[in-house]
Amino acid sequence: MRKKIITLLSCLFLLTSAMPTYAQFGGLRGLAKGLKQKAKTTVKEKAEEVKEENVGNVGNIGSVTSNVAAATRPPLVWPMSGGTYKDMDMRSFLFGIVNANVSDEELATMRDQCFARYRSNVPIYSNYESGSDQAQAENQNFLRFLYEMRTIVTMNISNVRVSRDGGIDGSDAYYLVTKDGGAGIGVFATQKDGRFQFVLKDGTGTYLNAEELATAQKAAQRMRKFQQLTYGLKDFLKEDPSNYDVNLAVMYNLCGMYANAVEKACEGNTPENIERKPRPAAGSLHASMKAKALAVAKADDPEVVDVIITSSQWDVKTNALGIPVNRNIYGYYIYKDEMGLQCYSRMWTEDYQGGKYGPLRKGGVGVGSPFYIK
């Protein structure tokens, strides 16, 4: 028992000696308080350092953001930069798009990149962000590109309505702008007798020779290329109502209509479509001027086989003072091919040379379409 008591007392002594006295406990409490205060001070100092560092780096953060935005923006495509494609500007490219040998896939990529770049530019200038002037200029360049295209489409789709025995009244006509420079060959593809065929402006059926047919096919190919460039354009324009233009929005459909009409007319291009007109009546100057006029015509084009002068008097042109400048007569060059005789409108001119007129020379080309005669 005594041994147990001694053991218990020993344990109590050890436990008591291990516990701090009141003075010691107060010292520990002061140390903890001091450490806590120092920790607060350290945290505050670090917070101030971080704050100052962040304030100093605001410009850098903006710069990084701008750099990231610039790096992730869609690429700048030549129609938006004001640049060229294989040394061709906008208009030259659009007229020569078939000869440019640009693939449909490349055109689709070009279109999608333009759409994407345009979209990325809108919030930049709408929010007056850095680079807003450049972003707006790029979008305006793209709209100009679209309007250049629209000009060519308008040239092709003339919406000429002709009435000839009720055959094509109310049908749209598609004028053939066939050359890279935009010149036409003076015929239309339109519905007649339930099918598309080539006709003159007055609705007279005609036939295209091999060279003319090739240029007609090129005109249709151009519209197919334009379809690649305008696919989805209507929905794209709706995204920016401030620049929405219905004339641009319908281009895809118009290009398809034109291409379909010309392609079908090319398929049905046969000599049976020719409607021959009466031979133009000769004017009173024909007999006296034919020999000279024919010589001038053959010098201009050896393939001319005959001429017809339809004028009965000279058309004198004067300057502002009433002094003659030249005088003209009008008529036709006549060619012969496997289909027969074909008339092309022409003019002959004599220049005034102080009291008299000089020798007859080639004048301008008439505005009428060529036609076959009986």
Shape: elongated
Task: Tell me the count of domains.
Answer: 3
Biggest pleated sheet = 6 strands, antiparallel
Q: How large is the radius of gyration?
A: 43 Å
Oligomerization: single chain
Low-confidence stretches: 1-44, 46-69, 160-171
Percent helix, as a range, is 40-55%
Number of strands: 9
* Percentage beta strand: 15-25%
Number of separate helices: 12
| SSE order, one letter for each helix or strand | HHHHHHHEEEHHHHHEEEEEE
Question: From the helix content, strand content and strand pairing, which structural class follows?
Answer: alpha+beta
Tell me the span between the first and last alpha carbons. Answer: 153 Å
Average pLDDT number: 78
Model description:
- The protein has 374 residues and is an alpha+beta fold.
- It folds into three domains: 2-56; 76-275, no CATH class; 286-372.
- It is built from twelve helices and nine strands.
- It has helices at residues 2-18, 22-56, 58-72, 78-81, 90-95, 104-126, 132-156, 210-230, 233-238, 246-249, 251-267, 286-300, and strands spanning 173-177, 184-192, 195-199, 306-309, 315-318, 324-337, 340-351, 361-365, 371-372.
- The strands form two sheets. Strands 4, 5, 6, 7, 8 and 9 form a six-stranded antiparallel sheet that branches.
- The longest helix is centred in the first third of the chain and has 35 residues, at 22-56.
- The chain is elongated, with a radius of gyration of 43 Å.
- The protein starts with a helix and ends with a strand.
- The model is unreliable at 1-44, 46-69 and 160-171 (pLDDT under 50).
